[in-house]
């Protein structure tokens, strides 16, 4: 088994889990619940498709069932948002739903487009520093896309807990991965100049 098998299976299970929550809490007439299902469920399917068409090499590492269970447990924290929506029968105002959907679309664009750029560039020109296109100004624009995606999911719940969970992921997992990547890219002579003119994670800010 590889890490991606556990990640992909969890992503695919998300839509089913949300449907079960809708059934358990009788939220069939709740527009917020349906829009959330459409966005998060579709994102899980798209992730699995992306994993087959342009996979991330970092998730190809072999792993055991114990670590796989840890992956599932960590990712399941993102299921707190739909649980809160269903359990509290959250019905967000129309303008708020529109804002969350817009954030999600921007996030999917940045995340998937950056991953595609990285995959194609490394396939055609292996061992090259990628410092153009979407990554010209932000070295980890794919993570910024994920921030928008999961930020939108958290906002749907209209509760502080999903946002806190997302921030924990950013601090404990994402940022260490980004710094590890920077250390790895330090082998390229042009990286120092690229690092000076680009942001680590968030456009214009950080």
Helix and strand layout, with pairings?
Elements: H1 3-24, H2 31-53, H3 65-76, H4 80-87, H5 94-124, H6 141-156, H7 160-185, H8 191-197
Element string (H = helix, E = strand): HHHHHHHH
Structural class designation: mainly alpha
Our count of domains comes out at: 1
Please provide the count of β strands.
Answer: 0
Taking all Cα atoms into account, the compactness measure Rg is: 18 Å
Enumerate how many helices there are, as a single number: 8
The biggest sheet, with number of strands, parallel, antiparallel or mixed sense and barrel status, is: none
| Helical residues, percent | over 70%
Mean pLDDT: 94
Low-confidence stretches: none
> Termini, distance in Å?
36 Å
| Molecular shape | globular
Please state roughly what percent of the residues sit in beta strands, choosing from under 5%, 5-15%, 15-25%, 25-35%, 35-45% or over 45%: under 5%
Briefly, what is this?
The protein has eight helices and no strands.
How would you characterize this protein structure?
This protein is mainly alpha-helical and 206 residues long. The protein has one domain (3-197). It contains eight helices and no strands. The chain has helices at 3-24, 31-53, 65-76, 80-87, 94-124, 141-156, 160-185, 191-197. Helix 5 (94-124) packs antiparallel against helix 6. The longest helix is centred in the middle third of the chain and has 31 residues, at 94-124. The two termini are 36 Å apart. The relative contact order is 0.13.
